[in-house]
Amino acid sequence: MPTHVRNVALVGHSGAGKTTLLEALLVHAGAVARAGRVVDGTTVSVSDEVEHPRQRSVALSGAANAHAGVPLHLLAPPGGPDFAGELRAGLRAADAVLFVVPAVGGLDAATAALWAECEAVGLPRAVVVTQLDRPRADFDEAVALCQRVLDDAVLPLHLPMHDDDGTVAGLIDLLREKVVDHSTGERVERDAESEHRTLIASLRAELVEAVIGESEDETLLDRYLDGEELDPAMLLADLETAVARGHFHPALAVAPLAGVGVRELLDLLAAGFPSPLEHPCPPVTRPDGSPAAPLTGDPDGPLVAEIVKTATDPYLGRLSYVRVFSGTLRPDTAVHVSGHHLPGHDHDSAGRVGALSSPLGAELRPVASSPAGNVCVVTKLTAAETGDTLSSPQDPLLMAPWSLPAPQLPIAVEVASRTDEERLASALARLVAEDPTLRLERPAETGQQLVWTVGPGHAEVLLERLRGRHALTVETPAVLVARRETLAGPATATGRLVKQSGGHGQYAVVVLDVAPG
Length: 517
Hints:
The chain is α+β, with helices and mostly antiparallel strands. It contains ten helices and 30 strands.
């Protein structure tokens, strides 16, 4: 059921610690046996063929797991600004967002802009402060910065505890008034000592009032104002409501390498984050633009799913990463394919779903079906592209598109041998099908094959895929600019012709008036 699923995107600038955090979450949830390392290229989220040498992600990846019986789909888009298209796709598939903020280094402008973008559409958000074991790490300052730059409703759920040498030794749980001690290498939970109670009291009141206020639980508010001791389980239920409303943002302290705060974050994702039913589905229309009934996220409703990512596997062929918003997607069934990004016959046609899988990075685990609220991988959808809608052939529907950054940087590409020109055209068509932020152009004046990209990093990845995946010898000559001249303003000129060569001769006066038109 959609109420038992959580779809969460981990976002933040490059180097914030998203990949390390994801590895720790997957290990603690039992999805992987041991955490991979970014420097070794062994992490789950670094699975693209051009990502390993870069030691950072350039494409959206998904990691399905479960905690406390709740399925978790963790989506890891890249943090670089040149890959904003992958980020937008990850946000489309998510029902909530974790902003990963380092305890050293602060926030960048892109993170603040992304927060505002999520706020504009009411997407629930929380903050995870990482890298707590780094020199000069300051959790309190990181939270204060988030309150100043992002939203003053960012409030800490936990406080980190440190040993004398600065090592993260555990957490203080403000909501439950507990201490979680990791100083012995094992997780030990106990009641807060007197030395911590003053600190807890100074912060807990604001936290509890914010949770109850944003959840609009008047009954619990009356009990709190009457001085009654509130059960933490009741507060957690209100916390989930407050987060789902998008106006309260819990901040958590996590030291992934030490394992501190990892279980607490998983607990929050499973019990305190909204389900797909609490996040409205994107609007839909008929393929001809006529209105259609809004989606409710019902697994028994009309089938509507959207392709948020397209990849190519050397053995399985095209892989379509799909978020199911309504109905249930089943293997070996006919679907209608509709799309916005590119006009053509394959954007309003029939298709057939192949095998379904649950992604864990590059690993695909077969599933029997994918009901509303889930993210899955579909094989053999050869006519479908990123951004396309899958629906029932008997009831075709089209989802409104998500916003994509406009490509700003053109590069010219050509192959060393004319015999490879056809292969280049085919390779570019495949890459554009995977990434709608790429745009092809061949100006008539220059005849060059141009590929418009979002930025230099985006262009580098494109070239690496052409040279690696498609085994093409590609050159990048300078982009030629077709020079054109026009009149700057109106002008008048007079010319005379006098030709006398015997006889009557020739005489003419020409008055020429020109103006920009």
